[in-house]
């Protein structure tokens, strides 16, 4: 589990194509300071398992399912990435509950600059729209953000200077692909509510 509070901006050192998978090596001195084989590190919001740690870099394998659902399929050497180690029990939850299980991707549609922040508009896949609500939480490239506004096909978030300076979101331009993870609590509520809603609908139909 993660919190969506990015610890550092790392970069891709190397990539390797594998059958139905890929292997990537990423540089990040902070997240590798105590990392070991089997640990979890979120890369642009995708939970990956550390295979090897060496000289401030770590290697991870990316399975086909992850490549299909996330932007990691197009990651390349030199790309900057948001990095976060798994949350430790007892620490402050600065963002929200993030699993590192990307639900889909969206496109940066537009950016509006203000004096002290930026509003970023992001395309919203139809399958995820029902989970996104105004003032709710969403993870964009591993960054925990509050939804400013939402419609059926897009939402907006406000980025403070710290987020702009210390994460990839400060460098994303219109047309860039970003990873999206909706609030898992919304999915659980839906799962629990559906049988009751169907039962009520059935009673009303009688």
Describe this structure in words.
With 206 residues, the protein is of the alpha+beta class. Helices cover 17% and strands 41% of the residues. The strands form two sheets. It has a six-stranded antiparallel beta barrel with strand order 1-2-5-4-3-6. Strand 3 and strand 4 form a beta hairpin. It is globular and about 60 Å long. GO terms for molecular function: riboflavin synthase activity. This is Riboflavin synthase. Its EC number is 2.5.1.9. It comes from Lentzea miocenica.
Number of strands: 12
> Overall pLDDT, averaged?
92
Overall shape: it is globular
The H-and-E topology, N to C, reads as EEEEEHEEEEEEHEH
**Rg computed from alpha carbons, rounded to a whole number of angstroms:** 18 Å
Could you estimate the helical fraction of the residues in percent?
10-25%
In what order do the strands lie side by side in the largest sheet? 1-2-5-4-3-6
Structural class determined from secondary elements: alpha+beta
Q: State the major sheet.
A: 6 strands, antiparallel, barrel
Question: Strand percentage, roughly?
Answer: 35-45%
Low-confidence stretches: none
Question: What is the CA–CA distance across the termini?
Answer: 45 Å
Helical region count? 3
Protein name: Riboflavin synthase
Function: Catalyzes the dismutation of two molecules of 6,7-dimethyl-8-ribityllumazine, resulting in the formation of riboflavin and 5-amino-6-(D-ribitylamino)uracil.
Keywords: Repeat, Riboflavin biosynthesis, Transferase
Organism: Lentzea miocenica
């Amino acid at each position: 589990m993660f919190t969506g509070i990015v610890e550092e901006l790392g970069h891709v050192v190397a990539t390797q194509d594998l059958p139905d998978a890929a292997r990537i090596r990423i540089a990040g001195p902070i997240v590798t300071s105590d990392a070991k084989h089997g640990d979890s590190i979120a890369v642009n919001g995708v939970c990956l398992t550390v295979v090897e740690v060496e000289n401030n870099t770590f290697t991870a394998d990316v399975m086909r399912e992850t490549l299909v659902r996330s932007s990691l399929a197009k990651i390349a050497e030199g790309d900057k990435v948001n990095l976060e180690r798994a949350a430790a029990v007892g620490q402050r939850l600065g963002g929200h509950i993030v699993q590192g299980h990307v639900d889909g991707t969206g496109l940066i549609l537009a950016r509006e600059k203000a004096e002290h922040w930026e509003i970023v508009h992001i395309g919203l896949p139809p399958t995820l729209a029902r989970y996104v609500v105004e003032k709710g939480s969403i993870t964009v490239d591993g960054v925990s953000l509050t939804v400013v506004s939402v419609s059926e096909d897009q939402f907006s978030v406000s980025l403070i200077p710290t987020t702009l300076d210390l994460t990839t979101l400060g460098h994303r331009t219109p047309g860039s692909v970003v990873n999206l993870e909706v609030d898992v609590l919304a999915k659980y509520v839906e799962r629990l509510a559906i049988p009751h809603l169907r039962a009520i609908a059935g009673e009303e139909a009688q």
